[in-house]
């Protein structure tokens, strides 16, 4: 049985590992150690400095709109309060009160507004459901959503103008996309989180709560689980790290993001690594006009979905892998170029400066996978399946992970339970395997010269 004295080993110091450890430690669990192969105490979750986990990024969208998934919507609303409290605390701190890698200027959450866009004039089902769910379950938050349907939205503009003229400007800045033929809404209480800095802060809070860290390769890198198998019962006794040391514990929590299935082989039909294409545009320092224009104070974050295209590919390989990769699929890249040329022509001259494949950990149904792994006598726990939407829950996720660990049923227990993709049921492409169309060798990759934007061909 799990107790506050149990020795708990957590593999992975991203969102899932940090949030879980923070909530456990704050609830009185005394013996928690996080192992991560990345030296976060030295590189501070900086994605251009050797970090390739999903959580180590420049920024991530913070949204509350979740269509009919009201539990996640409510969780995001709850998370928002903590994000704001963290942001205020950091900004009110003096530099020596903060950990290395974080300064009082680092604003963890920017409530810059978040635009959800789709092509055409008919409101996308997901957006319609989001509006309806909020209307019903969080009406105060629904009032802060402003619809965009086609070009003229006088009533919504008037409603925004009552809040501030700034929001009317933000409401219009994306008008260039698809020549204004877009629909969707802006949520003026959503925005972006500064991901790497938020992780640095969460790690700091973990340390303050007594969580220990073993970071870097080889000492923080798991090489294998130590499994005791007496035939009738398997039990995980601990982990072996790449420095050849064994670490024993009562419970091992694997929160290794897209690497999870390579640690727990039973999870290969439960979670799958799929890549998202991330591109960077560096605006030169002397272009203060553009820095100002795109500052979160003046610009919302936005997402634009065109049709149903959602091509992603399979098996973690990054800039920092043994077999490194520094490019992205051509398909995603050309779509980005098209939208930028339409909506943001002032950025075309800079081209893309860098790229990144950010690895999602997809579950069969986009719900997380947070449960004991069957047949290990409660000694092995899986905590992953972010499916591209877990960053926003960094401050709160662990509250509900703790419930699953303690077997206290809550609103997420059913959705997060251990499960495997099944043949003949919707499974998010999880059974396509190596012969599927998204397998990386079948995806056409971009050349560095494709990073230039002059090359856009107009249809
Ligand atoms: C392109 C992209 C965009 C996204 N955008 C958003 C967004 O806008 N909003 C949002 O809310 N969410 C977003 N997400 C989702 C969010 O980033 C993830 O759900 C979340 O960061 C996953 O956290 P994690 O802890 O599971 O994984 P990770 O952050 O990958 O952490 C896993 C950790 O395990 C470590 N590890 C792996 N193997 C080993 C080993 N053998 N030994 C020791 N350590 C190991 C890794 O080093 C890593 O630090 C996005 C994800 C991607 C990929
Ligand atoms: C954690 O557990 C280990 C192994 O049982 C023990 O040696 C150590 O003293 C414990 N640490 C704390 C802080 O309880
Ligand atoms: C770990 O053990 C292996 C095999 O015994 C050996 O090759 C390797 O050098 C050792 N690594 C370290 C860091 O001691
Ligand atoms: C657990 O054991 C049962 C009974 O042997 C088996 O049917 C099941 O597939 C096992 N589950 C996993 C995830 O291995």
CATH architecture type of the largest domain: 3-Layer(bba) Sandwich
Q: Which regions are unreliable across 5 or more consecutive residues at pLDDT < 50?
A: 309-315, 455-459
- Which fold name is given in CATH as the topology of the largest domain? FAD/NAD(P)-binding domain
CATH superfamily grouping of the largest domain: FAD/NAD(P)-binding domain
The structural domain count equals 2
> What is the CATH top level name of the largest domain?
Alpha Beta
Bound molecules: flavin-adenine dinucleotide, 2-acetamido-2-deoxy-beta-D-glucopyranose
Taking Cα atoms only, what radius of gyration do you get, to the nearest Å? Answer: 22 Å
The level of helicity is 25-40%
The N- to C-terminal Cα distance equals 63 Å
Main β-sheet, spatial strand arrangement: 9-2-1-13-19-18
Q: What is the average per-residue confidence, as pLDDT, rounded to a whole number?
A: 91
Describe this entry's structure for a reader:
Helix content is 27%, strand content 21%. It has 459 residues and is of the alpha/beta class. It has two domains: 7-59 and 195-272 and 363-428, 3-Layer(bba) Sandwich (FAD/NAD(P)-binding domain); 62-192, no CATH class. The strands form five sheets. It has a six-stranded mixed beta sheet. Strand 18 (369-372) and strand 19 form a beta hairpin. The longest helix has 23 residues, at 70-92. The model is unreliable at 309-315 and 455-459 (pLDDT under 50).
